[in-house]
Specification:
It contains eight helices and twelve strands. The protein is of the alpha+beta class. The strands form three sheets. It has a five-stranded mixed β-sheet, sandwiched between helices. A four-stranded antiparallel β-sheet has the order 1-2-7-6. A three-stranded antiparallel β-sheet has the order 3-4-5. The chain has two domains: about 160 residues, Threonyl-trna Synthetase, Chain A, domain 2 (Threonyl-tRNA Synthetase, Chain A, domain 2); about 90 residues, no CATH class. The protein binds zinc ion.
């Protein structure tokens, strides 16, 4: 019988698995937490995931510090020490044992000086420099209180960087800018947008006022009947406010086809009128508003 190992795959998984160890240890060191528990992990070729207990997601700054620490361990080219010893000895030396499984008399220990010691039966790179580079690519919430960090190693980091560059170039192109000036350009665009919004609001204001002033007066206790649909570029609340400040001496009904209405009463009590007509209403004496289809029959 001949056993054939796919070298590319094997080395890629060794790097990713070793990186997940480094990630876990860096996570503890950077966050100053001693209660972090591994809630699962996954390893593929130069790709790994670590699930761990954390209520809040880690900040961008914390993730960056973890990346820096792991990359410093990689650059220091530390030999990965793997040996077998008794469980007692391993625990005494501070080795972490995470899984609820029972350990035998002899246990396998992985030790990366300056980083940490852990019990592990998996396969590891012999030296941290084999990883070349380490990058966190995402942080997700898996379930309540469990976060997941995904990482890449080796050539995938360079590939990732090239993809990011492509992406940034695309954004720069859309913004008609260059990658170095993206932020400046976005700030400028936002300022322009703000100015345009203000101008638009002024125009709307003017349009509402002039449209309200051109309304025909009715021969009814309500001198003005205003259909919301005729002012479809503003919302109900804004229209009601505008109407109240424009007509200070009139009784007004504002309504929509959906049955939204507001009664602004100056010489009559809006509340009394709503009561009299059995309208479902809400608010104060001078203005009532609610939603009632009956308003459509009334107007
Ligand atoms: Zn391991």
């Amino acid at each position: 019988m001949k056993l054939k190992v796919n070298k590319q795959q094997r080395y890629g998984k060794m790097r990713a698995h070793t990186a997940v160890h480094l990630l876990f240890w860096a996570l503890e060191k950077i966050t100053w937490r001693t209660d972090i528990k591994q809630a699962g992990s996954y390893v593929d070729v130069d790709y790994g995931r670590l699930d761990f207990n954390s209520e809040k997601p880690l900040s961008g700054e914390t993730l960056h510090k973890i990346e820096e620490l792991v990359n410093s361990w990689i650059q220091e080219a530390i030999d990965v020490d793997i040996f077998e010893t008794s469980l007692d000895e391993a625990v005494k030396s501070g080795a972490k044992a995470f899984f609820d499984e029972k350990y035998g008399e002899k246990v396998r220990v992985i030790k990366i000086p300056w980083a940490d010691v852990e019990l592990c039966g998996w396969t590891h790179s012999p030296n941290t420099s084999f990883l070349w580079a380490f990058k966190i690519i995402s942080q997700d919430a898996v379930s309540s209180g469990i976060k997941r960090i995904s990482i890449i190693t080796w050539a995938k980091v360079a590939q990732h960087s090239m993809e990011q560059e492509k992406y940034i170039n695309q954004i720069a192109k859309i913004l008609d800018s260059s990658p170095a000036q993206i932020l400046e350009k976005i700030n400028k665009n936002q300022k322009e947008l703000e100015t345009l919004k203000n101008e638009l609001n002024k125009i709307k204001e003017w349009l509402i006022t002039s449209k309200l002033k051109s309304l025909e007066k009715q021969e009814w206790i309500f001198e003005y009947i205003i259909k919301l649909e005729d002012f479809d570029w503003i919302d109900f609340k804004t229209l009601v406010q505008k109407v109240r400040t424009t007509f200070t001496e009139s009784n007004i009904i504002i309504y929509s086809q959906q049955g939204n209405f507001a009664i602004v009463g100056k010489s009559i009590s809006a509340k009394e009128f709503a009561k009299e007509k059995w309208l479902k209403w809400w608010w104060s004496d001078s203005i009532v508003q609610w939603r009632d289809k009956k308003i459509l029959e009334l107007v």
